[in-house]
Amino acid sequence: MNELEKEMQKMNPYKIDIGAVYSHKPSMHNSVKSGTFQAQEKELVFDIDMTDYDDVRRCCSSADICNKCWTLMTIAIRILDRALYEDFGFQHRLWVYSGRRGVHCWVCDESARKLSQAERSAVAEYLTVVKGGEETIKKVNLIEPIHPFLKKSIVVIEKYFEQYALLGQDFLENKPCWEKVLSLVPEAARENLLHDFQKARTSVDRWEKLKKNLPKLDPKKGVNLSKEIMLQYCYPRLDVNVSKGVNHLLKSPFSVHPKTGRISVPVDVKKLDSFDPFAVPTISLICSELDNVSTKEEEDQVSPNEGETDVKRKTRGDLHIILDLTFCVVGNHGTQR
Does the model's pTM come out above 0.85? Predict the structure, then answer.
């Protein structure tokens, strides 16, 4: 660690990315025999970016986020963390705020680190539900019987759906919003639902009418349609290429986002609903607090408890998340990365 610290002080990087463990030092990749420079292991990682939800969020777009749409990240972590633990048996999972508009997940189990590219792709495909690009209107299609993973994901979404989609996003507020949702409905049922929507006054009322009347209007397709709409609007949107590749780099936890200055702090899944991305410390705040402490020390005005900055107190819990994970991984496998 001392060598790493000295090298970082020497290079003074503006950004730190982490990749795979290779058969040789990365600096030697051009000097070793062709085909021998290989990635030996890498954490299974997931990258969820808020910009991938631009077609379904009304409050913000592009790199902008707010507390309303941040609920999408909360839902994503709840769904994926449960699946990684219960469906795949992965014990060592670290969720990290990216510092700007999304979250990263690092799965550190030895079995995860040794996965081949095909196996990583299979995991990512299992977790991918929203499919299709901009040209695809309906991106979720459920097949009976609904898979247990999807049933559990729907339960998570239902917990947040009214507060997030119906009240926060008000996603059935006006006619343009209705038409967007009705485009997901079988054509034979649209006219009747449009009539119902015109008579209703709120998104909550319109949603209740849709859930009640769709199975009657289209007995074959309407039974699961409300679930498909919820999934399309709220289910996590993964960057599959990040997860399946072993050569992809991901920003290090506790590094500084170069555009926002925010620290990439771990997210405590046990306190997920209270996480606020706008309360995350920035590098300028940390520097300011350190300068203030240094000034007080020079003036001999620092009491024993004042030598610790407010940011350090706030992030101590974040550091423990990293340390606990590290000790578990090293203790279980008897090896160090």
Answer: yes
